[in-house]
UniProtKB/TrEMBL annotation:
It holds the Pfam family BPD_transp_2. InterPro entries: ABC_transp_permease. The chain crosses the membrane at residues 21-42, 54-86, 98-120, 132-154, 166-188, 214-235, 256-286, 298-314. Signal peptide: none annotated. The keyword Transmembrane helix applies. Keywords: Cell inner membrane, Cell membrane, Membrane, Transmembrane, Transmembrane helix, Transport. It is found in: Cell membrane. This is Autoinducer 2 import system permease protein LsrD. It is a multi-pass membrane protein.
């Protein structure tokens, strides 16, 4: 083997290593930096705060990752957060049944995902346009259903979903996020469905030629995103102890940012669930670190936007090399 070929192989292996694990080192570096420059970062209460924050964004981001991997986008997640909150709150108010409230919220969020997916698969609408339209529809329905007003959760035990701890230590929302991450990992990396999602995102025409049912796989990606967002809605409703039709504004950008930072390609066909989880943690660390340092919230938004741009530029550079 020539020296040049060996050098090229080493360069490729180095690039591959950075692509796979670079984001993990970024997360570790942020943790170390925040530990040094802030006083309370490693305190128990602050760690609980970080876990609570990333659990809601994380559930949404996992569903978003699946949609983007298939070459789509889901801008309905913020509105679905409000819809799930209102539906769960109304069911609790009328029946006082926690299981029924949870099931109803998840099923109705899934139905919204079915409608969105069918619009895209059946009528070949651009995902951005279809989900933007559905975002307005869902937000309007949530407002109409609630009368435009917030109302408290009728069953106090429901709040344990958002505020409870297992063995008095581990927050329940963090465990829910962990369970969803495992489910998403199995779906995307160990099942035929996951292989189809990657195939559609990588080359839709080739997937069709290979016999992949693009129609229903596309619909199912939005159904899964809807269900995962429904879980996030239950956590948030329990956490704030109220149903609110105006929550969730801007949450789609947090989910997209977590996915892109975690290595999900906007071009489709490239993603990892562990990478998305790391992206979720990084977003949470940014918010928490800036709060501890007293940075105004608008600068947090600026920082998030810059991170998305940098992640997309890095993705484009990696695609050119491939």
């Amino acid at each position: 083997m020539s020296t040049g070929k060996i050098s090229n192989d080493k360069s490729y292996q180095r690039q591959l290593f950075i692509k796979r694990y670079g984001i993990v080192f970024v997360m570790i570096g942020m943790i170390l930096l925040l530990t040094v420059i802030t006083e309370n970062f490693l305190s128990y209460n602050n760690i609980l705060n970080v876990l609570s924050t990333i659990s809601i964004n994380g559930c949404i981001a996992l569903g978003m990752c699946i949609v983007i991997t298939a070459g789509g986008i889901d801008l309905t997640v913020g509105a679905l957060l409000a819809w799930g909150s209102v539906v769960a709150g109304l069911v609790l108010k009328s029946t006082h049944s926690i299981p029924l409230a949870c099931v109803t919220a998840l099923v109705t969020c899934a139905v919204m995902g079915v409608v969105t997916g069918l619009m895209i698969a059946q009528f070949d609408l651009f995902p951005f346009v279809a989900t933007l339209a559905m975002q307005l529809v869902i937000r309007g329905l949530a407002t109409a259903l609630s009368g435009g007003a917030s109302f408290p959760v009728a069953v106090s035990a429901f709040t344990k979903i958002g505020l409870g701890k297992v063995f008095g230590v581990v927050p329940i929302p963090a465990l829910i996020l962990l369970v969803l991450a495992v489910i998403a990992y199995i779906l995307m990396h160990w099942t035929k469905f996951g292989r189809y999602v990657y195939a559609i995102g990588g080359n839709r025409d080739a997937a069709i030629a290979s016999g992949v049912n693009v129609y229903w796989v596309t619909v199912w990606t939005y159904v899964i995103s809807g269900i995962f967002t429904g879980v996030a809605a239950l956590i948030m409703t329990a956490k704030i102890n109220a149903s609110q039709p105006n929550i969730g504004t801007g949450y789609e950008t947090d989910a997209i940012a977590a996915c892109v930072i975690g290595g999900t390609s906007f071009a489709g066909g490239v993603s990892t669930i562990p990478g998305t989880v790391v992206g979720i943690v990084i977003i949470g660390l940014i918010y928490n670190g800036m709060n501890l340092l007293g940075v105004e919230s608008y600068w947090q938004t600026v920082c998030k936007g810059v991170l998305i741009v940098l992640a997309v530029l890095l993705d484009k550079a990696m695609n050119k090399r491939r």
